[in-house]
Amino acid sequence: xxxxxxxxxxxxxxxxxxxxxxxxxxxxxxxxxxxxxxxxxxxxxxxxxxxxxxxxxxxxxxxxxxxxxxxxxxxxxxxxxxxxxxxxxxxxxxxxxxxxxxxxxxxxxxxxxxxxxxxxxxxxxxxxxxxxxxxxxxxxxxxxxxxxxxxxxxxxxxxxxxxxxxxxxxxxxxxxxxxxxxxxxxxxxxxxxxxxxxxxxxxxxxxxxxxxxxxxxxxxxxxxxxxxxxxxxxxxxxxxxxxxxxxxxxxxxxxxxxxxxxxxxxxxxxxxxxxxxxxxxxxxxxxxxxxxxxxxxxxxxxxxxxxxxxxxxxxxxxxxxxxxxxxxxxxxxxxxxxxxxxxxx
Length: 345
Description:
Residues 285-313 are annotated as: Disordered. By secondary structure, the chain is an all-beta fold. The chain is built from no helices and 28 strands. The chain has a 4-stranded antiparallel β-sheet with strand order 3-4-5-6, with no helix packed on it. It starts with a strand and ends with a strand.
């Protein structure tokens, strides 16, 4: 693990959490210059969360997967406006592969210090009352880029699936308060991705256009065939109803729009660049951008002054940074007709 305080010019080596030398760390969420949570992925108790409050000099184990058959895939926090949050009150979500036929979803309301599984029916805490999160046979999540889940607002999450059981979008949304039904339910939208053990939806990103209006972009493909044509689906926001601007599940069907020109290979991560007003997606064989909401993707190629592989061998995005295998780190620069991701040592 590495840490930077100057935008990526210099990198410091972090301490390794005690007993975690052989764990596979897939996710990180930084809150400020000193506070962060990292997630390891693996079967059973190899899925863990560690937290630092001193700039990664020391770590505290805060949560271990309680399911021996479980496997964690992604962690995400929602940052509220400063006037509504403190360092101790941040909501987050953690998702994992199915256990006993249901996806594992955990939430925190205190910056990750404690976690609770979202109950199917909790009469004590009504806001947590949820419908079941049932998985298809051989349906799973992919942990390649820590980006199979997004939080649009506190407790309003979206996560994507893949594998032989097919690719779907799960959306936890509030129910109409006047029908006295379960407070939250997961609605399901089928995604047009191929289905096998190495294929499906790998990454989801959101873009808020207006309050309570969020567009989604999903990318993926087949990680065992990275040069095959990639997969992409754009899901524009649904119109709000009249009850406070909130979209209640079932109020409008989610549209799914496939690309005319998809990404040029398997893609494991996607993000919205708000400064440059474009979507960017990365994978082992290249980088693509779209400025028409995923209808057409065009590849980025290195400029004459870049290393020839500057566009390739990337796994995950956290703009402006991009990371790849073997400690590879890059920083996105302003894109023009010959733009490329600039590689950093």
